[in-house]
Amino acid sequence: MSSLRSFGCVVSFAVGLLLVTSIPAVQAQDQQALAQSSYVSEIHGVLQDGSGASIAEGNLVLTDSTGKSLETNSHSDGTFVFRGLVPGTPYRLLVMALGMNKLTREGVLAGGPLLVLPMQVDPLQQSITVFATSPELDTAPELSRTLDPTALTQLPSTNRNLAQFAMLDPRARNTVGSGSDGRSSTRLTINNQSFRFTQYELDGSTDSDFILSNGPQQNVSISAIGEFKLLTNEYLAQYGRSSGGVVLLSTKSGTDQFHGEAFGYVRPSGIQAAPPVSTFHVPNAKEQWGSTIGGPLQRGKTYFLGSYEQQHQERGAFIQSPTPGFFTGIQNSYMGLLRLDRKWNDREFTTVRLNGDFLKSNNLNDVVGGFVQANAGRNDIQQSTAGQITQRSMLGTWLNDFRLSYSNALPLWYTPFTPSIQIVRPSYSTTGGSSVEHLRSQAWQAAETISKTFGAHAFTFGGDYIHQYTNYNFISTPLGTYTFAAGPPTPNQMPLRYTQTVGAQTLKYGQDLVSAFAQDEWKATRRLSTNLGVRYDYQSNSSGVANFQPRLGVAWDAFGNGNTVVRAGAGLFYDQIYGQLQRNALNLGPNSSAASYTISNPSYPTPPTVGGAADRRDIMLLNPRLKNPYTMEVSAGVEQKLPMGWVLQLDAVFMGSRHQLMLDNLNAPTPFIRTAPGQTRAAVAANATRPSLFYTRSDGTQIAVANVEQVDNVGNSRNTSGEAQISRRFGGLFQFQAAYLYSSNITNVFFTGGNSTGTPSVWNVKTGESGPSDFFQRHRFVATGILNLPAEFRLTGVTVAATGLPVNPLTGVDNDGDGILADRAFGVSRNSYRGPAQAQTDLAVTRTFHVWERLSLESRAEISNIFNHGNYVKLTTTYGNGASPGNSFMIPTAGISNSDPARQFQFGARLLF
């Protein structure tokens, strides 16, 4: 156990070495206002970093229940003293230091024992509030979840994907299988909002992929992360651009002592369970290795931290139809990071971070698998390089934090194995393909945050400017695609339609983002804390200019003893117009150099010639008055300390969203209202009812069009949830936390910008369109535990259980003749079916061996999905065109993106020093 404690000290030391500077004392008359002649007691203490080293020139503000305050600084040895205080009177103590977190201690008594106040490095400049009489309670009004390096490295994680840790909060879930690869594996939906609205930050700067909005643009090794935090509700005004949630990552720093780790993990192929749906075992091998090391370049002045991680994987993807088989994909990935920290003096501190990652795969996210055959495969590359400079300064009594960052990424870069005509038979097979996409994105950000404490008020204000742009080469289906009716081929069967893109696209586009915020974390009374703030966001790709977002949060110590905390909050949150919409409008717009055509009942097997005057094309537009979607959130909760150290937390949240994005067809055929199953309308008959045969382009020329789809702000949704959470820390022996979430969700659209998403069953008919969002789960339960055992064994576990995901029942044919296969079965509404329940338990066992005084070896064995439960993310949606569902409806689809992995074993070791 001593080695675990030693390791904990090393980790704390790595997170806590940035030293701070002074803030001058307040005027003598302020001291007289607080003190009286009868005050004879004092408060003595010392400021320390995570390693126990003294923090000089820290600023401390002591406030009584009336709001009067005293202010002082810590000395060179970290000590401080407040004199002339009332004995037995509780005070509030706020501590702020350069580059460190803001620490608040409640209920400090004059005449008490020496206060030892440990402070931690906090690149995000967050606040930590501690009740002296009840350290288990969280007094922040926001709803969040924080994981330190111990939890990140000890909890089970067979894929070492940072985004997966967000799902330890029941309000977050992945939108693809949890074993997925690359950028798509980080597509998180939070509070049932679109995954494209989730925001990511790394060391205080934005890290979101602004084009695809799938997740973070940069990947960093777990071993380089000092803190992981998920914000899900009522967060401070300095965080925004999201109505769902924000994932915050901060990297570790070097210290005055050399420290680090070398690690290796292996997943042997032969002992792994067959993947879901598969009828036999497939190859499943994976190796990950790397190291992280940090230390001084000049003790007390300059520190470094370097991190490197590499992965090699061979994974078989099960092909379930028409002939069972598998395709083995090969994937290699690399991640590296270098961080330098320099303390110039007690008032200036500079951090420089450089990082990059690279991934190459011939079957990313099982592009081949399920119904997709091997000849439809492609080669994928994803990579990013980035850097950031952070300058922290004390300007008088103001703390200034300036950040400048740059990133260059390839979020999407693929080419087919062998280009050929694609043939799609839904729920049966897909062969061939010819699409090519090469996408490079770049982003610059400059951000400023300034903070200052005035008595009971902690003010923070600032803003940022982001310039994002991209170069994009896109050739979609240049050789064409045949689409047949769902199911196996029949004799003399002809295709339903043929689609082909004529011409190629080379695009350059981007956007500018500007934000400003101001917030006041105000200790109104000894028992009442408030967060008051306002934020403004501007986006050049949106017409919205009134994007002001007030935020309010309160936390109240109900009985003054720290045992019961009541909190409430309300706020307005604006989302971004994600770049995929701009890309779609340029690719498929009327002035595009490429055009996509759909021919109903085409010739076969010789493709028709498209692009003639009689051929109609579908185009996509953005409403020139498109605004940012927004969500109003209101929350209330209580946190109660129970006997024997247990803590119960209850929270309720209501979210109402407006101006949500939705497609509107400006040239839709008249509604085709079916009165019985099996009814269809021919494309010729549908086209005859369209309002217009042609669309006039900006140069005055006309083009023949079919569907003219425009993105508008006509969607809305509401989400209500209640959460119960219980937790307890049994000293250093056992940690446990369990949370249950019940939610209700209804929306008239779930549009993500992808093909056919947000498309109604019948244009201009709202009946049947209201339903749950695509990733809504009414019940969700998450439990985590860490148990320290004798002989330095440690057992950790995670259990997740939830109801199944919605399934949208589609006929698989074009009933209304509009050329879009989004027609639902007769008499049902959107997402009216639900898949099977989900459940998964992961376990990890570690043991620590002492090798030398500061050197230890940690062995590890872990099992994910120990009971091998089938957890399906995507089921076959082809209901059929009859009165009852066909045999293929709701059957699981093979592929790592379509379901969570089956039971997997992984073994590893970490050398810690």
Structure description:
Strand 40 and strand 41 form a beta hairpin. It contains 5 helices and 46 strands. It is mainly β. The longest helix is centred in the N-terminal third of the chain and has 14 residues, at 2-15. The strands form 7 sheets. It has a 22-stranded antiparallel β-barrel. It has a 5-stranded mixed β-sheet with strand order 3-2-5-6-8. A 5-stranded mixed β-sheet has the order 9-14-15-12-13. It is globular, with a radius of gyration of 29 Å.
**What count of helical segments does DSSP give?**
5
User: Low-confidence parts lasting 5 or more residues at pLDDT below 50?
Assistant: 1-39, 122-135
Number of strands: 46
Q: What fraction strand? A: over 45%
**Alpha-beta classification:** mainly beta
- Shape descriptor reads globular
Characterize the largest beta sheet: strand count, sense, and whether it forms a barrel: 22 strands, antiparallel, barrel
Average of per-residue pLDDT values? 87
Classify the helix fraction into a percent range.
under 10%
- Distance from N terminus to C terminus (CA atoms, Å) equals 16 Å
Radius of gyration: 29 Å
